[in-house]
Amino acid sequence: MSDNKKMNYYEILEIPVNASFFEIRHAYKEALSVYGEDSLSTYSLFSEGERENLLRKIEEAFHTLVDEKKRSEYNHHLVENGVIDPTELSREEKQKSIPIFLAHNSIDKNMFFKKVKKKVEESSIRELTREIMETALISGQDLKRLRQAIGIELDDIFEVARISISILKAIENNEFQNLPSLIYLRNFLKSYAEILHLDPEKVADSYIINISLLQK
User: What residues contact 39, with CB distance under 8 A and at least 6 apart?
Assistant: First the structure.
């Protein structure tokens, strides 16, 4: 997440300005999971004060955007200050179904890791893993290819590592413009690599070099 002091509430929750109630609620829950104290992917990135400030901003964003009157006043303020395009507000909201993992209990992490471990021991997966680790520059497509071969969904990774779906998609699609700052990205990559049974340091270093070259 970029400097939250300069971000509006939609940017903090990583949602469009015409987001539906369900999108706002989902983004709020996801943000709390990613930046909460029990998050494996961000626990070492913030001081206690920084985390409290960030979580306070997330709470402010959520409670403003789910209140119709407060949201309308906030949107008016953003439009007046040229922060958002008023035409964005007039677009028809796309109602999205609630993701399955929000309607059920969290996945059994022990069972999940056992399933992944068993899968990566298959010869075809071992060969793909070897191929990726021997690649000079690892890309998001490489990670996605292995994830899909193992049979892991992005929702599964979110549940285990608390990395937001939007960030996971940006990583896999090499969308450097949508990636978080380097310190966060490195931690996310290492968590993702560990789930796939890849060398976390090599994956993080190689991916970041690759992204840097793509930006030139």
Answer: 33, 162
Residue where the block lists tokens 């494996």: 40
Q: Evaluate if residue 102 carries a pLDDT over 80.
A: no
Spatial distance between the Cα atoms of 64 and 20, rounded to a whole number of angstroms? 13
Confidence class for position 145, pLDDT limits 50, 70, 90: very high
Tell me which residue has tokens 């890849």: 198
Mean pLDDT score, 147-153: 93
User: Are 24 and 62 spatial neighbours (Cβ–Cβ below 8 Å)?
Assistant: yes
Distance (Å, whole) CA 203 – CA 188:
11
Q: Which of 25-39, 45-59, 89-103, 108-122 has the lowest mean pLDDT?
A: 89-103
Q: What distance in Å separates the CA atoms of residue 28 and residue 12, rounded to the nearest whole number?
A: 9
The fold for domain 4-98 equals Helix Hairpins (1.10.287)
Q: What pLDDT does 93 receive? A: 43
Contact criterion met (CB below 8 Å) for 163 and 154: no
Residues of the chain with CATH 1.10.287.110: 4-98
Q: Say how far apart CA 131 and CA 83 lie, in whole Å.
A: 46
* Distance between CA atoms of residues 166 and 10, nearest Å: 14
| Whole-number Å distance between alpha carbons of 140 and 177 | 14
Domain at 109-215: CATH code:
1.10.260.40
Alpha-carbon gap, residue 191 to 193, rounded angstroms: 5
Q: Is the dihedral of CA 40, 44, 47, 50 positive or negative?
A: negative
